[in-house]
Amino acid sequence: MERSRINRVMAEAAEMIAKSGFHLPPFAHWSPEEFRARATPAIREARLGWDITDYGQGDFDRLGLFLFTLRNGRLADLQAGRGMVYAEKLLISQENQISPMHTHVIKTEDIINRDGATLAIRLCGSDEQGRMDRNAPVRVDCDGVPREVAPGGILRLGPGESVTLRPGDWHEFWAEGGPVLIGEVSTVNDDLTDNIFAAPIGRFARVHEDEPPRHLLVSDYAADLT
């Protein structure tokens, strides 16, 4: 993705988030220079902040997602069963913009339609080896109510509705009828190793630096802050 496009997506996302009544934390507004000077190890190591991806495919309108990681615990705490074992994100899915089929090995997550149009989620189960099984139904909880979804079936969530997805629940999602502001509340999040995609794609965008960044992306941290 071109950095200029990433900058525009950031500005548009910040506007939608504000109109929905949410407020991003102070570090969200830091310039790259401020971030370099002020970001603590807790922010950098937890990879808190801006995250915009086209999954390395170069077609953000068709295959892409906006994310902002608000808080994130430590895998060591999760393994110990105490401490900061949770994470929270805001996401924005544009109309018909797909976040491609994937699952997680560790993370259980609640996906919440916070505001906007309809969130559509296609679900598939797993076989005994954890591979996607297009013939397996998926059993999920929607706001505490058990639901069984047919193999490859689509679950649609209106504003305020949510679904709990567990490891092995394969899912892809997109917005219908307009953009959707999505909440994600989960166990500890590791985007470097805990995203298993059905297709051979990457998690992060390859960035073409055609203008200076508005804010740093989480994928900039390793190169920019070392």
TrEMBL record:
CDD domains: cupin_EcSI (cd20309). InterPro entries: D-lyxose_isomer, EcSI_cupin, RmlC-like_jellyroll. Keywords: Carbohydrate metabolism, Isomerase, Manganese, Metal-binding. One of its GO terms (molecular function) is D-lyxose ketol-isomerase activity. It is an enzyme of class 5 (isomerase). Gene3D superfamilies: Jelly Rolls (2.60.120.10). Its cofactor is Mn(2+). It catalyses: D-lyxose = D-xylulose. Its EC number is 5.3.1.15. Belongs to the D-lyxose ketol-isomerase family. This is D-lyxose ketol-isomerase. It comes from Paracoccus halophilus.
